[in-house]
UniProtKB/TrEMBL annotation:
SUPFAM superfamilies: DAK1/DegV-like. One of its GO terms (molecular function) is lipid binding. InterPro entries: DegV, DegV_C, DegV_domain_contain. It comes from Nocardioides bruguierae. Keywords: Lipid-binding. This is DegV family protein.
């Protein structure tokens, strides 16, 4: 197996894509009322999350325990892994990286833990970059560097209907959330050095989504070129029509502007642990080197 690559469920990779690239996905835990569930088809799903939010059931999330990570990694070692690279969402918004670092001391093979300093689809793209490097026979250090380089050059952009869910989870400051609510605006967010921050405020949802498209195109054109192919991923929570329409427009524009330097992308629903902090209707875009 060589180097095994692991990420967490907030990367929101389609299951078939993760399996195709040999990625192991570790679930986060989502608490819906009194139910404590791991993410997955038999546990915390986006549909169950949306239902809970709709009934105002208390919702929270928690990182994987180090013991759970050790158990999964030891299975990889038993299957032949000689080293492990773990690519996770920003340590500024989750303790998952900390759990991984604690777990790394208890496994009998080299483990490199990569704090992507990203959230959502951009973390998934960094994990894919690591998996691609591993499939080419790269060393554990080279695989980890592939993830770090992809994440460092990547961009996360996000539209949410309200900042309230981010405020409740402590992922954005109360003043910013209250200002957005008072002005009745639709927020656009970004991730700066691992921290979720307001980027712009737009008066209506349609204008906000249009602005999200323009910002995505600008970021992709700034990144792409003769030596750099670009991939764009659109995530959503309970908003498939919005996501598909946005991806179609982005694909048309970027294929025309970048030609072969546009490596395409996909849309998928984000997982419950990520959606718990954004609420239904969110659209998250990840832009990164392919």
């Amino acid at each position: 197996m060589g180097v095994a690559v692991v990420t967490d469920s907030t990367a929101s990779l389609p299951g078939g894509l993760a399996a195709e690239h040999g990625l192991t996905v570790v679930p986060l835990t989502v608490v819906l009322g009194e139910e404590v569930l791991e993410e997955g088809p038999d546990g915390a799903t986006p549909a169950r999350l949306v239902e809970a939010l709709g009934t105002r059931l208390p919702v929270s999330t928690s990182r994987p325990a180090p013991e759970a990570l050790v158990a999964r990694w030891e299975r990889l070692v038993a299957d032949g892994a000689e080293a492990i690279v773990a690519v996770h969402l920003s340590g500024e918004v989750s303790g998952t990286v900390e759990s991984a670092r604690l777990a790394a001391r208890r496994v009998g093979v080299p483990v490199e833990v990569v704090d992507s300093r990203q959230v959502g689809p951009a973390t998934g793209l960094a994990a894919l970059a690591a998996a691609d490097a591993a499939s080419r026979g790269a060393s554990v250090a080279e695989v980890a560097e592939a993830a770090r380089a992809c994440a460092a050059r990547g961009t996360t952009l996000c539209y949410v209907d309200t900042l309230e869910h981010l405020r409740r989870g402590g992922r954005i400051n109360t003043a910013a959330a209250l200002l957005g609510g008072a002005l009745a605006v639709k927020p656009l967010l970004t991730v700066t050095d691992g921290v979720v921050e307001p980027l712009e405020r737009v008066r209506t949802a349609s204008r906000a989504l249009g602005r999200l498209e323009e910002l995505t195109v600008d970021a992709a054109l700034a990144l792409g070129g003769p030596d750099t192919a670009v991939r764009v991923v659109v995530g959503h929570l309970a908003a498939p029509d919005r996501a598909v329409a946005l991806l179609d427009r982005l694909t048309s524009r970027l294929a025309a502007e970048l030609g072969d330097a546009f490596a395409g992308g996909w849309e998928s629903e984000v997982t419950a642990a990520l959606g718990a902090h954004t609420g239904p209707g969110m659209i998250a875009v990840g832009i990164a080197p392919a």
